[in-house]
Amino acid sequence: MNQPILDCRNVSYSYHNLSGETLALSNLSFQVQAGEFLSIVGPSGCGKSTLLSLIAGLSHPEEGEIIINIEDKSRIGYMLQQDHLFEWRSIRRNVLLGPEINHILSSEHQTLADRLLKDYGLDKFQYKRPCELSGGMKQRAALIRTMLMHPKLLLLDEPFSALDYQTRLMVSADIGRIIKSSKITAILITHDLSEAISLADRIIVLSKRPARIKKDLPIHLTLKDQTPLAARNAPEFSSYFSILWKEIADEYQKTN
Ligand code: ADP
Ligand code: MG
């Protein structure tokens, strides 16, 4: 088997504050192969965002280790629920922020920005400020900013949850298409099981806090080459949904 792009080995992490210790992750192990699209689902508060911030290197495991087989760690993209655009910069200057602050801004970045702004229907808005755009448009701008860094590993923490349902379907379909066509490895946290099934190659269900892996489910839809919207009509879709729903409902029924 190839060397995985991400190897989480026996990872534990707790938060410490005045009221005591909160064990968020306990002895969590899994691997992700290059090019794989993994989705992580689980009850709210179980430790999903904690796990992603550890993978992003924003904090470090208390026990265990996280091995990322990417030479240039700046090629880990991290996209959150809020778009985090800077209000005083135009959309274009927000999009070009990564290369600019890394002092690597080139004509190639400008060309890619032009193309993505156009593909995402933002070219006419590129000189506007974020407050002049809708939530969906801002989230698309945030995605372009992430993509301009040519990520090899893309970490997505509920990136669509601030969007209304129709925009969410459209933006998630776009993002799914881009990720698959550019063969980026992606980890998507979502609470939307249909979104996870329609986008991912594999879904991990986490238990209640402290998170452990409850289920590791490969997804094979016979409509695989179709869009994520069409994937929802695949014959296997509803049985995957029932399996995942049962696992999650099971966790919610448990008392602490
Ligand atoms: P999820 O993303 O699955 O909803 P999180 O990873 O954000 O969950 O949080 C996991 C647990 O850790 C929660 O119980 C949360 O209350 C706790 N937690 C998160 N951040 C902090 C923090 N900065 N200090 C103390 N506890 C925290
Ligand atoms: Mg979270």
TrEMBL record:
The keyword S-adenosyl-L-methionine appears for this protein: no
Gene3D superfamilies attached to this UniProt entry: P-loop containing nucleotide triphosphate hydrolases
Pfam families: ABC_tran
Domain ABC transporter: 6-233
Organism, as annotated: Suilimivivens aceti
UniProt KW Transport keyword: yes
Protein known as: ABC transporter ATP-binding protein
MF-aspect GO terms: ATP binding
InterPro entries linked: AAA+_ATPase, ABC_transporter-like_ATP-bd, ABC_transporter-like_CS, ABC_transporter_ATP-bind, P-loop_NTPase
Keywords: ATP-binding, Nucleotide-binding, Transport
